[in-house]
Amino acid sequence: MTMRALSSSLVCLALLSLPGVVGSQGTLSTQGFGYPTGEMSTRAIGAGGATADFDAFSSTNPASIAASNGSMLYVQVEPEYRHLTNSNGGTQKNVIARHPLASLAVQIRPGLFGGVSVSNFLDRSFETQERRATPIADTTVATTNTFKSDGAIGDVRAGLAWTPTSWLRLGVAGHVISGDNRLRSTEAFDDSVRFAAIADTTTVTYVGSALSAGVQVFAGSVAAFAVSYRKGNSMSVKHQDTTITTANVPDGISMSAAFIGIKGTMLAVRTSKDTWTRMEGLGSDSLPITNGWDTSVGADVLGPRFGGDHVLQIRAGGRWRTLPFGLVNSEIKEKTFNMGLGTLLARGRLGVDLAAIRAMRTPVTSTVPFRESAWTMSFGVTVRP
Question: Are the C-beta atoms of 195 and 141 separated by less than 8 Å?
Fold first, then answer.
């Protein structure tokens, strides 16, 4: 690798990992390596994420694969509408389209289930524009600068779940943590006759792995408890075929408890923590990383019947966490209020889930004059043979 190529690699790595200038990036949530989506299904999101460790479609606990109760295919889409506001009343808006989760489960034999899922581990998608006056020789030319990031670090999980008794579920899984970020910077001159537009595109790739295990315990038909743990292995950043630097996939632990004493209803609380600081070394030393807790409460309640045989599930919940990648002088707190609906169609062979998430993201320190709000709409579809 030439010195020029190495220099280019290091520059692109710094661009990916350094906290962005909020005013030009147009987002608080995708600082550093990106936004942690949580790897939760639409129906878990509708309950604030509190039911994720018991949910067959979510990728948080491999023991939950057994909750599929047979073979199924699940896909999910999630557009997000972000709105960044500064203290002077200025605003920037972004629309982000995500495909955060797809999963497949099969029953291998009675009591034994296998599953594969593909989910977003960290998402770093945004686009913003900024007007500038660029000095060239003895003149100044007005330009429109566009900065776009399109990419994510994904989690491909393959797991097994076993139910040795009716009150116990056990699960193990292997994870491939991989993905890339594509950065494109474009400078378009107002005087396009004399000055051609300048564009630069850089792509870096992430490669890592992890192992996870989980357990679910049921106290009759009244309560349920779940614990899962992910052990991260090494992780590297590559530019073309060259490894730039290495670190580790974050470890993670989650704990959940739920009341299930009412038919078709789950009232749950969940808390989890990821050691994001294990990613230190993948980027700049000045990148602030926080190992904050992620806590949620929520309900998934059996609702009214409609159309004869169809039953509606009604969901609601809230979630509070510190985002892992903050600003140089401030952590970023996020709180969300969630709601959702779900039902089964075609004699139970088709499941449809909808959820709406209202998120507020604020810096801890008052010296950062930015606030971000967002609406996210989540749509999940389940097909069973």
Answer: yes
Residues in the chain: 385
Which of 107-116, 139-148, 233-242 has maximum average pLDDT? 107-116
Residue 279, both tokens: 């990613």
25: confidence class by pLDDT, cuts 50, 70, 90: low
Contact 38, 273 (CB under 8 A): no
Distance between CA atoms of 65 and 46, rounded to whole angstroms? 19
- Residue 219 has a CB neighbour count (10 Å cut-off) of 11
- Using an 8 Å Cβ cutoff, are 188 and 217 in contact? no
Is residue 176 within 8 Å of residue 209, measured between CB atoms?
yes
At 127 the pLDDT is: 67
β-strands 252-259, 266-274 pairing = antiparallel
C-alpha span between 236 and 136 (Å, rounded): 39
**pTM of the predicted model, to two decimals?**
0.85
R_g (Cα) of the chain, nearest Å: 22
